[in-house]
Amino acid sequence: MSNGAATVPRNRTEIIELAGSWARRNVWTLGLLGLLVVVFGITKLLQPNYGAAAIQGLAINILPIALAAVAQAIVVISGGIDLSVGSMMALASVTSAVLMKGQGDLFGVAVVGGVLVLGVVVGAINGGLVVATKVPDIVVTLAMSFVWAGTALLILNTPGGGAAPWLMAIISGPLGTDWLPKAMVVLTVIVAVVWLPLRRSTLGLTLYAVGSNPLAAFRSGVAVGPTKIVAYALTGFFSALGGLALTATGGVGAPVPGSYTLQSVAAIVLGGVSLAGGRGGVLGPIIAVIVLALVRTDLFFAGVDPNWSTAIQGAILIGVVMFGSLVAMRKVRA
Amino acid sequence: MTASVGTSVKRAILARIASLTEGGWRRIIRDQPIIPLLILLAALVAVLELAKPGIVSGNWLATTIRAATPLAILAGCQTMAMLTGGIDLSVGAVASMAAFLMATLATGQGPVVALVVAFAAVAIAGLVNGIGIGVFKVHPLIMTLGMSLVVLGLMSVYQLLMVRSGTLIPDAIQWLGSGISLGFVPNSLIVFAPVAALIVIGLRRSGYGRLLFAVGDNPIAARLAGTRVWQVLVVLYIFSAILAAIAGILIAGNTNTATVSLVEQSVLPSVAAAVIGGTSIMGGRGGYSGTIVGALILTVVTTLLTVLEMPEAVRQVLFGVIIVVVAAAYTRVSGEA
């Protein structure tokens, strides 16, 4: 990957070749993009008025789930899984809401910084426990999901607190043109500033290496344990962002985790991140979140009972994963 | 950190209790986890009696077992799935579906038809789980999560269709789920005793039970030895769904309610009970007797926290800490010995 970026393509065929190999590597993401276009087209057919305002609402709605999906993607890429994402989001949400209520803007900025640090610490505790106890990650993070959800409930028993006005303003409304929702810009900036440099760095490479083959990574001199802890800390960081997004979209802190953990797992699987680790990125999961949200919108416009959408979401999840493993099995046989 | 302190304290206590060598105790914890678990259970009951003298009685025993029974059955689903290296997170949705189908159909069609339909529906859900996991090699976590979404969604749609009929829990089911005979025997034992015996003996003695261990211990070796792994998994997940349905119907009988998310909150505790009972999520190690004690331990801890007037949040935190500490202790003991 870094080789492709480093060599300057000399002629046209080389550029086409590079584009071709990029497309082959990202075939799943490209497929998802195609699916997104199709689903968007269906939305437009069902509801010709579907436009800028609706897209702004959509962007705000998906922001917490998209951040949860990014959080889950990072830890799964490094070969783990974190079932406490939703609980960490709840913890970050209530902490920020309780501290921010009735305070000034400057203090609000400090709170946001503090909550992000809290997310890193909480995530690092998850990762530290996984590495130190050698207990399977599913068990540790499932147990920690109780712990963080309980802590969130101790901080705030019922939805309450408040959000700083600037935090709510930062994600609502459009930026420049009506078609560019601020929430989407925020998401893009966060991913571009945090994840892209990371992925290009040595640390990013070691995350993928540890996920794809821990033994080989260890023998190549990668410190596997610390890398895993860093991956969990990053997941905690993005979960904290997701929690802040919850506070910002709702205006209050929500102590109950909701179904964000499940949705994040569904999104990364649809987004082409291999549960075996070492494969995928964060773009696919984000697109998957948008597709799933649009499918729900479509079902609503088509007059389908909203309760069907849960069942359909589950069926899509199962269907896509089955399709993916069928493709993988055929490849192995061929 | 906590784990190592916990084990060292445990080790010190154990060393004083008996003159057995440290290695001997390790072997016991690894091979017979039920002995230290029973000691822990007894200690918890002692603490409970200290916290509220007089609480431990025949009636207390009955209510504790009554509360632990559905949890133990759900944990049985997890135990068997975990032995093969899987997990069944659809037990909550499937159990709720069974209870809800039974309760809504019992009003018009009568209890027998209602039960038949309920069990047929869960068997289909289990079959689909098993085909996804066994044939299509979908990760059990994803497959069962997806299945729980599908089941929950379908039940919500069904709920709207059946909104007029209302729900009815048949008297016999209420008697089974909530009744107590002779002052200390919960009637749910009539269902639970044979189920528990079937699982405990089946896992140890039957060929199918050994296959579950074999598949979890080394799927490739099991396949090379001639095991049809996918058939083992399909049967497993159907059985798991049927067990979940039994648990759901018992809960409906005990609480005299049936909703589409009746059992959802018991999913994570069911995994916890199996982990505490000494079953490894990696497969190949564990058993059901430990799981039953694990379910009892969780129930007693819940009672203890209620007696101490701790908020629900503290219970959650403590559940999480217990799971991590116990799982770490098992891993340490089995990894080092």
Which series of helices and strands of chain A comes N to C? HHHHHHHHEEHHHHHHH
| Shape, principal axes of CA atoms of chain B | globular
**Quaternary organisation:** heterodimer
Could you say what the CATH topology of chain B is called? ABC transporter involved in vitamin B12 uptake, BtuC
Written overview of the protein:
The complex is a heterodimer of chains A (334) and B (337). Chain A has a single domain (52-303), classed as ABC transporter involved in vitamin B12 uptake, BtuC, CATH 1.10.3470. Chain A is built from 15 helices and 2 strands. Chain A has helices spanning 2-6, 12-25, 27-46, 52-77, 85-100, 105-133, 137-155, 165-169, 182-200, 202-212, 214-219, 224-250, 260-270, 283-301, 306-333, and strands spanning 174-175, 177-181. Chain A is mainly alpha-helical and 334 residues long. In chain A, strands 1-2 form a two-stranded antiparallel ribbon. Chain B has helices at 2-17, 22-31, 34-51, 58-83, 91-109, 111-135, 140-161, 171-178, 189-205, 207-217, 219-224, 229-255, 267-276, 288-307, 312-336, and strands at residues 180-181, 185-186. Chain B has a two-stranded antiparallel sheet. In chain B, helix 3 packs parallel to helix 14 and helix 6 (111-135) runs antiparallel to helix 12. The radius of gyration of chain B is 20 Å and the shape is globular. Chain B has one domain: ABC transporter involved in vitamin B12 uptake, BtuC (Orthogonal Bundle), CATH 1.10.3470. Chain B is an all-alpha fold and 337 residues long. Chain B has 15 helices and 2 strands. Chains A and B meet through helix 6, helix 7, helix 13 and helix 15 of A and helix 7, helix 13 and helix 15 of B.
